[in-house]
Amino acid sequence: MSHALLSPSGASRWLACTPSARLEETFASTTNSAAEEGTLAHALSELYLRSHLKLISTVNFKAELRRLKANALYNSEMDGYCVDYVDFITEKLNELKSPSIFIEEKIDLTAYVPDGFGTADCVMIADHILDLNDLKYGKGVLVEAHENKQMMLYALGALKKFSLLYEIGLVRMTIYQPRLGNYSSYEIEAEELILWGDTYVKPKAQMAYNGEGEYCAGGHCKFCKAKTTCKALADYNMELAKYVFEDPNKLTDEDISAILEKAADFKTWLANIQEYALAEATLRQKKWPGFKLVAGRSNCVYANPTAIMETLQKTKLDKSLYLTEPKLLGIGALEKNIGKSEVDKLVGSYIIKPAGAATLVPEWDKRPELNSSESAALAFENIQI
To answer: pTM above 0.85?
Structure first.
């Protein structure tokens, strides 16, 4: 599969740090099981959706389903989440009046981005609304729709493609992340989005394509291939070092906000540096000044549990000393083994989701502020009198 140099998925990065796209070209492309799992989940979701909308014959559907299920990464949990995605799209279709729907729609972005292209998971058009939907199967990072650059680029391309056939005034972008229970939407007027594309995206994209501009570090560096060796990112993160020995009680409100804004990225950057240094020392025998490679601490593990069990059973030891009674698996394990939708149907009424621990987030986050009337209403909505 070919990938655009200025891919929509990396837009938050190359729009903010224009030289990064060409710099990343010098690093080898890699993949991992999470990415491959996401690709499989998208293919399965597309198949189920096409079948639900009767856009594929039963024979072809069954043949393709057998092929996808033969993948080693397939499991019943994935199947359940893909069915949930179809239900989600169906609900949105029912909300709109006789919408046109486009699945895995190829999007041409060359009007704004040199050689730019991408694929939108699901596009619906009705009632003067362009409704884009994106399935995020990963669970490592929660993805928000608010000013999401990937979604905004898809929307620009879709507007360019469909504006001659449809009168579109509003653009709605929704991210559906089932494994994190994340449903996030963002709306913008079509004219405002086009203005953003013309005045901001076009010049930035051309600079990025040419490899021009200055390196600019920030939260967008998370998935950059060059993050472990980038001097700009190192300088950005080391700005926090000036606070290391400061008494938190003596910091100003602005100092605290600045630290909170960078704290998560700083911790991630430190972990990335450690991972990179270890890989270089292990795989390439790199010698880091002042450090050496040693065997880490480890715990004992059973080499042959069956033999241990048989040996202990031949003794006079009480079984309670080495056996435990069967117990109910965790919710995650149940959903993986049985399927999320089946678990919901069978025992969903017995499963609760307690309120999460308090956490600080940006003001645009969709969750209600604690101590507000909205959060109070949520807290009492499940209490029956």
So the answer is: no
